[in-house]
Design brief:
The protein is an all-beta fold. 0% of the residues lie in helices and 53% in strands. A hairpin with a 4-residue loop joins strand 7 and strand 8.
Length: 115
């Protein structure tokens, strides 16, 4: 059974930083593309970032230069370092993966950027 468990969300002031973590299990993590997505209040799910199995990274324009995705294949973990946070980054952040036409995501972690 695929399990994705996010952690690290918090209330942070504008300009601050947070590091989100995602613990993965139940699939071959090292061979999987991992993603972060987010959903702001009353908005649809928005893709944030991908990291391929070999470490190539991709970012949405809205977070490029501020967010960094990384992975630790030995620990089955994926991370999202978020710097220079803005109020518009407020959302529930999800870790996700897909394989063979199926997709999975965790329960999410709340990030609130507010003074």
């Amino acid at each position: 059974e695929v399990q994705l468990v996010e952690s690290g969300g918090d209330l942070v002031q504008p300009g601050g930083s947070l590091r989100l973590s995602c613990a993965a299990s139940g699939f071959t993590f090292s061979r999987s593309v991992m993603r972060w997505a987010r959903q702001a209040p009353a908005k649809g799910l928005e893709w944030v970032s991908n990291i391929s199995s070999d470490g190539r990274t991709y970012y949405a324009d809205s977070v490029k230069g501020r967010f960094t995705i990384s992975r630790d294949n030995a620990k089955n973990m994926v991370y999202l370092q978020m710097n220079s946070l803005k109020s518009e980054d407020t959302a529930v952040y999800y870790c996700a993966t897909s394989s063979g036409g199926s997709s999975w995501r965790g329960q999410g972690t709340q990030v609130t950027v507010s003074s």
